[in-house]
Specification:
Layout (H helix, E strand, L loop, with lengths): L2 H53 L4 H19 L5 H13 L3 H7 L6
Amino acid sequence: MSKENRISKNNSSNGLYVDIRKMIEEARSSVAVSVNAALTILYWRIGKRISTEILKGERADYGKEILATLSQQLTQEYGNGFSYSALTRMGKFADAFPETQIVATLSQTLSW
């Protein structure tokens, strides 16, 4: 193979590598945005349920006990992302942003 053919082949291979690498990075970025958006909506929905059904009811002290039990159950099954403090933050998040549309918009920019 001549020197010119090898250079041409190397440039072609390098260009292919660069293009495929770019596709991979774009896909990863897109997946990360989608996952972050889904997590934001999930955490808001959990927070909404906690806020309306447990913490704002007439049984606030009892609600804290329910939240502690719920946290233990969720943490055992899904990991530390559902600790008592994480669940209370989710409730505060839902209180701070009570409109679903606002959260949907935020979900495109927030990351967890």
